[in-house]
Amino acid sequence: MKLYSHDFNDGDRMPERHVFNGMGYQGDNLSPHLAWDEVPADTKSFVVTCFDPDAPTGSGWWHWGVANLPADTRALPQGAGSGSAGLPDGCVQTRTDFGRSGYGGAAPPKDESHRYIFTVYALDIDCLDVDAQSSGALLGFNVHFHKLDSATITVNYN
C-alpha cells in the first residue's frame, strides 16, 4: 500500500493548519488530506489513525481514529476529521486522547519535537465493533486481528 497527502510529505514538518487549537497552540486543527492506493484486492474496509509515540504518557497519544471506511474509499479530504468536509456514510470517528472523537492536531509540550504517524489500514472485515467512545487502544486492538496491509506518513512538529 501507499499513503500520500496533498498537505505534506513523509518527514516534513506539520503545517500550522493541522496543529491543535488549545493547550497553548493556535493552529486550525484541520485534519489533512490523505489518499491511498495499491490496496489488497480482498480489502473490505479501512481504518485511518494518527498517533504520537513521543507523548510523555508512557503510552503515546491518539490524535485521530476513523473506522469502517468503505472498501471503495481511496481518500479523505482535508477537514474530513474536523467537520468541515464529509466522511463516507457508516464510518465512525473514535475518541482521541483529547477526550472526544474527531481529529485533534499536534500539541507537544513546549520545546519538544514529536512525530505524528498517519496510518491507513486495509482490513478483511466490513465493520469493526467500535463507536465514538472507543479509545485508540481499543481501535488498534481490533485492527490487529483484521489487518491485511498498511501504509504510513510521519510528520514532525515542535
Automatic annotation (TrEMBL):
Which stretches are transmembrane?
none
NCBIfam families hit by this protein: PRK10257.1, YbhB/YbcL family Raf kinase inhibitor-like protein
What protein is this chain from? Phospholipid-binding protein, PBP family
Species in which this protein is naturally found = Izhakiella capsodis
